[in-house]
């Protein structure tokens, strides 16, 4: 049977606990009632990598199809295909892909020399990310020589199959541009 002293000690411990609860109860809330509400402070959130559009053309990524991101990705989850104008047949970049730069591109380490003239014009046909395997290591974003990759702010991705996490980043960029143009026009 508990003594009077033990009972008082237990009650005091409860009072101390309730004091902490009471103080926390009246503090401003830091969380939101998801999914009814979503947070609006995702400015520094690192979602999957996403293509960045050219300043003068929101439908075209800055990508110069060098293949560095494909080669550097430790998970092998990036792939892209491009074609050379006049050549017709799409081919992959990265791996055995050759580095052919647009004339205006100046790469870090190129001692500010533009590539020789006469290089063929290339067109990006597809740029895919298999997000199922991405470790979010950041090598693709950090090593892109023209800053054509950035973190998305996709914090609420859900899906029922792996296929839903195989992203067509080129289509995403174009859809985003189309929707922002639609908003501007409205
Ligand atoms: S590293 Fe950048 S420029 Fe090169 S293929 Fe990847 S996204 Fe394009
Ligand atoms: S963050 Fe890392 S693992 Fe994910 S796509 Fe980029 S390089 Fe690959």
Report on this structure:
The protein is an alpha+beta fold and 186 residues long. It has a domain at 61-185: Alpha-Beta Plaits (2-Layer Sandwich). The chain contains 4 helices and 8 strands. It has helices at 4-25, 68-72, 139-143, 169-185, and strands spanning 49-51, 53-54, 57-61, 78-84, 91-92, 122-130, 149-151, 166-168. The longest helix is centred in the N-terminal third of the chain and has 22 residues, at 4-25. The radius of gyration is 26 Å and the shape is elongated. The model is unreliable at 106-112 (pLDDT under 50). The protein binds iron/sulfur cluster (2 copies). One iron/sulfur cluster binds at residues 49, 72-75, 77-78, 129, 134-140.
Total beta-strand segments: 8
Output the structural class. alpha+beta
Largest sheet: 4 strands, antiparallel
Q: Give the integer mean of the pLDDT values.
A: 83
User: What is the share of helical residues?
Assistant: 25-40%
Quick overview of this protein structure:
The chain has about 190 residues and is α+β, with helices and mostly antiparallel strands.
Give me the secondary-structure topology.
Blueprint: H1 4-25, E1 49-51, E2 53-54, E3 57-61, H2 68-72, E4 78-84, E5 91-92, E6 122-130, H3 139-143, E7 149-151, E8 166-168, H4 169-185
Antiparallel strand pairs: 1-7, 2-3, 4-5, 4-6, 6-8
This protein binds iron/sulfur cluster (2 copies).
Question: What descriptive keywords fit this protein?
Answer:
186 residues; binds iron/sulfur cluster; elongated; alpha+beta; Alpha-Beta Plaits; 4-stranded antiparallel β-sheet; two-stranded antiparallel ribbon
